[in-house]
Amino acid sequence: MPEVEFEKNKLIVTIADGKNMLKKNEDDILEMLSNSKGMILDDVELIEKLKESKITAKQVQDSLAYSEEK
Question: Relative to the CA of 32, which of 9, 47, 50, 58 has its CA 20 to 30 Å away?
């Protein structure tokens, strides 16, 4: 039983960390967009941040799906 509790707590921490990362990415993206000059599609840093955010969102989604299975 302690093993199950440990896994549950580990998942909670992982999900919370993922949500915090998503929030930070969202804030960074919004700031980059508001300070953008010219064509946003030419902003390599913004495009990379969007890709990173997409990957993080997928990881959080997978963690949530895994925790629901347990």
Answer: 58
Place of tokens 């969007």: 50
What residues make up the domain containing 14?
Answer: 1-18+39-70
Within-domain flag for 29: no
> Tens of pLDDT along the chain (70 residues)?
788 888 888 888 888 888 888 899 899 999 999 998 888 889 999 999 899 889 988 988 887 777 767 6
Nearest-CA neighbor of 16 among 60, 50, 70?
A: 60
CA trace torsion 49, 53, 56, 62 (10° rounding): -150
